[in-house]
Amino acid sequence: MIELRDVHVTFNPKTPLETRALRGIDLTVPEGQFLTVIGSNGAGKSTALNVLAGLAPVERGSVRLQGEDVTSWPVHRRARLISRVFQDPKMGTCEDLTIMENFALAHGRTEPKGFRLAIDRSMRSRIAERLEVLGLGLENRLGDKVGLLSGGQRQAVSLLMATTGETRVLLLDEHTAALDPKTAEFVLELTRTIVERLKLTAVMVTHSMAQALSTGERTIMFHRGKIIFDSSGAERASMGVEDLLHLFKKTQGEELSDDSLLLD
Amino acid sequence: MSLYELLGTLEIGFVFGLVALGAFLTFRVLDFPDLTVEGSFPLGAAVCAALIVTAGWNPWLATAAAAVVGFSAGWVTALLNVRFNILHILAGILVAISLYSINLRIMSGPNKPLLGVETMFSDFEGFGLPGYMINPIILGVAIVIVLALVNVFLNTGYGMAMRAAGANPAMAEANGINVGRMKLYGVGLANGLTALAGALFAQIFGAADAYMGIGVIIVGLASVIVGTSLLPSRTILQATIACVFGAILYRFAVALALNADFLGLRASDVQMVTAILVMLALIAQHSGANFKRLFKPAIDK
User: Fold this and answer.
1) What is the CB neighbour count within 10 angstroms for residue B249?
2) Is the separation of the CB atoms in B32 and B62 below 8 Å?
3) Which residue from A22, A191, B71, B123 has the highest number of Cβ atoms inside 10 Å of its Cβ?
C-alpha cells in the first residue's frame, strides 16, 4: 500500500535553477496492485519514484508506506518496507562481491545478521534454487563476482535480490531500459511472473507506452510534475498507444514532443 | 643481513601488518582514503606509554586502551565526513594535525621513554629465548589472530554491509545499510588497529615519540599496494594475507635499501625511498602496458 498526499518537490529552491519537479501529487496504490508510470523526460516520474525510495527531498506533503508515515525516513530505513531495481544494471548489485554475497546482502535488508556469519548453508541452497528458475546457469556460479555477469544477468539477479525477504513494495526504475530488446523482454516477463506470484505492490517507471499498457493493471502518466492521466480496468484494456497519444493531446492541448515515448 | 637484523625486520613487518590491515579496511573495503593514521599511530604509542609509566597500568590493559582511543580518533574523522560533509582526506588531515598536539599533552612532552618498566613483552621473558627472538614469534602469532578476526568480521552481516557500503553506497542504502554508520565503524576499526600497532611499536623500542607517525600512511598504503599487486587478492582472505605480506616485504625493501651503502643511501633517506617504492608499485599496477611503452621508441606509439 502506497499513499502520496499532496507531494511537492522543488530542486534548487530560491535559485535561478529552481525546478518544480512535483506539483502536488496525490496517489494511492492499493495492496497488490501493479502500477506502470509513463511520462516524458523531466515530467516527474523518476522524482516520484525517488520520493518513495527516500532519495528526493519532500518539500510539502506526506508519504505513507504500508500504513506508516515514512516522509522523514532515510533511504536505509525505508529499505525494510520497499525494495528497488535500478535502471543501471551496475547499480543494483555489488560487482566486487560474489553472487552469493550479494544475496546475503539482500537478505540482510529484512533480516540483518549482525555479528553472525552473513551466509549460511540453508541460504546457499535456497538461492541456488531461485537462480535455477532463470535458466541462465547462475546457480553454478554462486562464487563468481557479479562484475563478471552481463547486464541482463545482473538485472535478473537484481530482481531476485529485490524480491528476497518480506518486502511488500517493489520499485522498478526503467529497469529494462539499458538492456537489448530480447533481454529486456526476458527481464520484463520475469518481473510480471514474480510480482504476480508474490502479490507485490509494484510501481514500474518506463519510457515505453506499449510496455506500460501491456504490463501491470493500472497506468498513470506524468506531465510537468502532475499526474494527467490515470487508467485501469476495461478502459485501459481497450487502449492502444495511439489512444494514449490522442488523450494526451486532448488534455494538454499540445503535441507530445518527446520522441522517445513513441518508440515501440 | 644478520639473523638479528632479519628478526628485527620481521618484527617491525608484523607490527606494520596491523597498519596494513587498517589501510586495507579504509582504502580498499570502504573506499575512504584515511589520513588519520598519521596521528593515531603515535596516539596509540602515547596513550600506552603514558598509562604504563605515569598511571602505572598493566601493559596489556594499556595496549587495549590505546586501541580503543585509536578507534575514537577514526570515529571523529568519519564523523566530520559523514555528518558535516568535510572531504574525507581533509577530515583525516585535520584530525591527524590536532592529534599531534594531543599527543604532546598526553606524554607531557615530545616523547615518553618506557625504559625500566614492565611491557607486554616482559611477560614473555624467561622462556629461554632472548627478546629479539621471542618478540617476532609473539607478534607473528598476534598478527595471525588479528588477520583471522578481520576475516571473520568481514564475512558477518556487519562486515558484508561494510563491504557493500564501500563498493556501492547507493545499492547498500537500498538494501537497508546505514552507509554513514558503516564508515564510522570501519574508519574507527582501522584506526584502532593502527593505534594498536603504535602501542606495540613503542613497547618494542622502549619509547613513544610525537614524530613516530610521519609516513605511516605511506607505509600502510605501500603494504596494501605492493602486497595485492604481487599476490592474488581475489577473495578477502587472499587480500588480507597479501596486505600483511606486503607490510613485511616493504620492511625488507627498506632495510635492504638502507643497507645498500653502494647506493649512497642514508637512514634519513627512508621517507624518499618509501615514496618512490609506492610510486613504482602504483605505476606498475595501473599501467603495466604503459610502463613498457615508456621504454619503447616513440615511433611504435
Assistant:
1) 18
2) no
3) A22
Nearest Cα of chain A lies from the Cα of B45 at a distance, in angstroms, of 30
Separation CA B152–CA A113 (nearest Å): 13
In the numeric block, the cell 545499492 is attached to B171
Determine the average pLDDT of the residues in B22-45: 96
B-chain residues within 8 Å CB-CB of A94?
163-164, 167-168, 171-172
Residue B300 confidence (pLDDT): 44
Question: Residue A74, exposed/middle/buried by CB under 10 A (0-12, 13-18, 19+)?
Answer: middle
Alpha-carbon torsion, ordered A143, A146, A150, A156, to 10 deg:
90
pLDDT tens-digit readout, B174-204 = 999 999 999 999 999 999 999 999 999 999 9
Domain that includes residue B107, residue range: 3-248
User: Which grid coordinates are listed for A98?
Assistant: 560474489
Flag whether B298 is in a domain. Answer: no
Give ranges for CATH 3.40.50.300 in chain A.
2-81+168-261
CB–CB of A112 and B179 under 8 A?
Answer: no
Picking from A264, A263, A86, A95, the residue whose alpha carbon sits closest to that of residue A175 is A86
Element (H, E) at B83: none
Domain count of chain B? 1
DSSP string, A168-205: -EEEEESTTTTS-HHHHHHHHHHHHHHHHHHT-EEEEE
Q: Which residues of B are less than 8 Å from A74 in CB distance?
A: 173, 178
Are residues B201 and B63 in contact, defined by beta-carbon separation less than 8 angstroms? no
Distance from CA of B151 to the nearest CA of A (A): 11
Which residues face A196 on adjacent strands?
none
CA distance A191 to B178: 28
Of B160, B168, B176, the CB nearest to A76: B176
What top-level class would CATH report for the domain A2-81+168-261?
A: alpha beta
pTM for the whole structure: 0.89
As to burial, measured by CB atoms within 10 angstroms (0-12 exposed, 13-18 middle, 19+ buried), residue B133 is middle
φ, ψ (nearest 5 deg) of residue A119: -115, 125
CA–CA separation, A119 and A107 (whole Å): 9
At A48 the pLDDT is 94
CATH number of B57's domain: 1.10.3470
Alpha helix (H) residue ranges in chain B: 3-23, 37-53, 59-82, 88-107, 131-154, 157-167, 169-174, 179-205, 216-230, 236-259, 270-286, 288-293
In a domain, B139, yes or no: yes
Report pLDDT for B301: 39
Query: Residue A76 and residue B178: Cβ atoms within 8 Å?
Result: yes
